[in-house]
């Protein structure tokens, strides 16, 4: 009940998070898929910003429970070919599956963490689209560097860490400490071209960031109005629309300069 009276919490109907026709496991799978995509897009945006070479791969982004691909294919498997035909883009996978009859066996050539793997998956009737072949995976483009970039967060889902991931990659790949030892937080989806996108729960993220000691918060500019009246004392909230904006804001703020701020009409506690 306390959440009803705490601006740091949001109370929403259960079905918004766990729809009746979607299992909790599939919700987690989708959140993991979005998180993996945010990592990939952050790598692309950061390397494009730094003008470093980028590798593009077609990978499994999600594997849904109780489907033919479950425990056979795994997220981040790179799909090299299907039945001997090279896979160059995500649509090649859906086209291959859906252009063959239900019950067709597909041989996937996979790169799994540098190891060549061959697996077979047989299509079934899609329960949501009867008459359509289905194997139960999501497929997307994955952007990778010519060197390892590892994300160590655990038990986190969704796409909203993309912007701060990209800033962190730039920090790691450039001399010095971008944050200058200061506590900086932020949110926002990140597109490969460096565009910052919207997220949910901005008021809760602001409260959580300040509670963890953050002094500067990078916020997607479209959320400034939503944040008004919920910005905690001691937290500078600066709007950004691109990765370049984010990096410049951090550099300016840590060097003692003034950054633009979302309006504060009523300070939250």
TrEMBL record:
Residue span, Lon proteolytic domain: 158-245
Pfam families: Lon_C, PDZ_2
Every PDZ domain range: 57-121
Gene3D superfamilies cross-referenced by the UniProt entry: 2.30.42.10, 3.30.230.10
GO biological process: proteolysis
GO molecular function term, any single one: serine-type endopeptidase activity
Protein name: Unannotated protein
